[in-house]
């Protein structure tokens, strides 16, 4: 993986719908994520067969991956529940998804995992 640009989680959330179906985000292992945390987006077709996370991503401390399609599904779920979701709502939903492997419910008693 020679060419990549570092991005932020905020950028990923704002641009996930425009990414290719092969796009994969390499994320920090930190939890919860913040909007200004670093990530990179790669084309999964560029990964070696036995490679889950590219070495360049690991060098940046980005050891977790999530497909752009999964990010879009989180965004879709938020949009179904909230008429005008804010960045923090979407970030909460992503963090919940990463922690629980499930979609967040924006009912007041279900936002915490």
Task: Itemize the secondary structure elements and their pairings.
Layout lengths: L5 E3 H7 L7 E5 L10 E6 L11 H5 L4 E4 H14 L5 H14 L13
Antiparallel strand pairs: 1-3, 2-3, 2-4
Helix pairs in contact: 3-4
Description:
The protein has 113 residues and is an alpha+beta fold. Helix content is 35%, strand content 16%. The chain is built from four helices and four strands. It has helices spanning 9-15, 55-59, 68-81, 87-100; strands spanning 6-8, 23-27, 38-43, 64-67. The chain has a four-stranded antiparallel beta sheet. Helix 3 (68-81) crosses helix 4 (87-100). The radius of gyration is 14 Å and the shape is globular. The mean pLDDT is 92.
What is the count of β-strands? 4
Main beta sheet: strand number and arrangement?
A: 4 strands, antiparallel
Rg estimate, integer Å: 14 Å
What level of helicity do the residues show?
Answer: 25-40%
Strand content: 15-25%
Mean pLDDT across every amino acid position: 92
Strand order of the largest sheet: 1-3-2-4
What structural class results from the helix and strand content?
alpha+beta
Please, how many helices? 4
Distance between the termini: 35 Å
Oligomer: single chain
Tertiary shape: globular
Unreliably modeled segments: none
What is the ordering of alpha helices and beta strands?
A: EHEEHEHH
């Amino acid at each position: 993986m020679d060419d990549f640009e570092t991005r932020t989680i905020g950028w990923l959330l704002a641009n996930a719908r425009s990414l290719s179906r092969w796009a994969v985000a390499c994320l920090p292992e930190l939890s919860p994520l913040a909007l200004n945390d670093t990530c990179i987006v790669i084309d999964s077709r560029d990964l070696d067969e036995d490679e889950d996370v590219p070495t360049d991503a690991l060098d940046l401390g980005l050891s977790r991956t999530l497909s752009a399609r999964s990010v879009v599904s989180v965004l879709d779920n938020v949009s179904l529940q909230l008429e005008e979701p804010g960045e923090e709502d979407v970030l909460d939903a992503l963090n919940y998804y990463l922690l629980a492997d499930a979609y967040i419910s924006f009912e007041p008693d279900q936002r915490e995992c």
